[in-house]
Amino acid sequence: MNEKDLFNGYESIAKRSPEYIELINTQRSLIGLKGHTILNNSNFHELLEKMHAVEESTLSEINDPALSYKYNYNRMLDDKRDDEMLRNIYHYSTQHLYNKALFICGVDHRKSIIRKISAYERREISKLNWTFYNSDF
């Protein structure tokens, strides 16, 4: 993979979708008004999911296979990144003793990681006591 494989079509989506521009403006406004506290809120995650849905539908309208491929490739990379972060945490936990730890991830990864933790907890020997800051999902 190299830099040219990464998705760079957000401008194309914005040019084609007034709804997408509105969602971006809402996102920026919420972050400006609420700061970091909004990032852990389920309403903000619903906004992100709506943005992803608009991205996908707009890309479908644009009908550019290369652009769609790059977008889907980036989404797949994000999913694999979530898996890798959790794998590293559970692996580290089998190798090191600790009482408390802090894991910080980007807002786009949070909901996915929270969902994936239950699967890890079912199959991993080490069980971790997860606490989520300001989580309402």
Secondary-structure blueprint:
Layout: H1 10-16, H2 18-34, H3 42-62, H4 65-95, H5 107-123
Walkthrough of the structure:
- The chain has helices at 10-16, 18-34, 42-62, 65-95, 107-123.
- The two termini are 34 Å apart.
- It is mainly α and 137 residues long.
- The mean pLDDT is 89.
- It contains 5 helices and no strands.
- α1 (10-16) packs across α2 (18-34) and α2 packs antiparallel against α3 (42-62).
Overview features:
single chain, 137 residues, mainly alpha, 5 helices, 68% helix
Provide the low-confidence segments as ranges. none
The run of helices and strands is: HHHHH
Instruction: Specify the overall morphology.
Output: globular
Q: Which structural class do the helices and strands define?
A: mainly alpha
Determine the fraction of residues in helical runs and give it as a percent range. Answer: 55-70%
Number of strands: 0
**Number of alpha- plus pi-helical segments:** 5
End-to-end distance:
34 Å
Which value, in Å, is the CA radius of gyration?
A: 18 Å
Strand proportion: under 5%
The average pLDDT value, as a whole number, equals: 89
Q: What composes the largest sheet?
A: none
